[in-house]
Amino acid sequence: LFEIRPRRGAYVVELALNDVADIFNVRCALLSLAVRYLARNPDKSALDEVEPRLAQLRKLALQKKPSLLDFAQATGRVAMGLLSACAIAKDALWRMLWMTPQPPDYVRPERRIDTFHDYEQLLVAIKAGRADAAEVLMRKIMTDTRDEVLGYMAQSHSDVVDPFRQQVY
């Protein structure tokens, strides 16, 4: 993430679009495994900390002009809550994508509402023990986000994403 140049200092390395696609695909696999674990686990008490996070996401999704950074962070808190609920490690690289005042996703109100509804359905599937449905929904959430972010970033990048990277999930 950083390049050290002798007698010049450290520089942030710009991520190529393929790198971003790979980050999303790894996160998709990790979160899909997490929701599968949660759906198969008969003890749903670990989800208690996810419910208030989903309520906050609902509140932001219904606002006409929420802070996009707040919305992106709220979706991240729901995802991190799911990871925490099944004790899967968190990934810091993911958070770096949203360290800007204007995150590269959720600009359109419809996108925010769709994201909230997807997470809401995901929690229902997990609670019902429907592991396959939960995994499919998690993959949808992550691929929708990946494609939205890549589309946004492609506007300012000269490189292109290898098509196979967008067909993995």
Offer a concise description of the structure.
With 169 residues, the chain is mainly alpha-helical.
Q: Please provide the count of β strands.
A: 2
Oligomer: single chain
How many helices? The count is 6
Helicity range: 55-70%
Structural class: mainly alpha
Low-confidence stretches: none
Separation, N- and C-terminal Cα atoms: 25 Å
Cα shape: globular
Mean pLDDT: 85
**Amount of beta strand:** under 5%
What does this structure look like?
By secondary structure, this protein is mostly helical. 60% of the residues lie in helices and 5% in strands. The protein has 6 helices and 2 strands. It has helices spanning 17-40, 50-61, 68-85, 92-96, 109-127, 131-154, and strands at residues 2-5, 9-12. Strand 1 and strand 2 form a beta hairpin. Helix 1 crosses helix 3. The two termini are 25 Å apart.
Give the topology, please.
Blueprint (H helix, E strand, L loop, with lengths): L1 E4 L3 E4 L4 H24 L9 H12 L6 H18 L6 H5 L12 H19 L3 H24 L15
Helix pairs in contact: 1-3, 1-5, 1-6, 2-3, 2-5, 5-6
Summary keywords:
mainly alpha; two-stranded antiparallel sheet; 2 strands; 169 residues
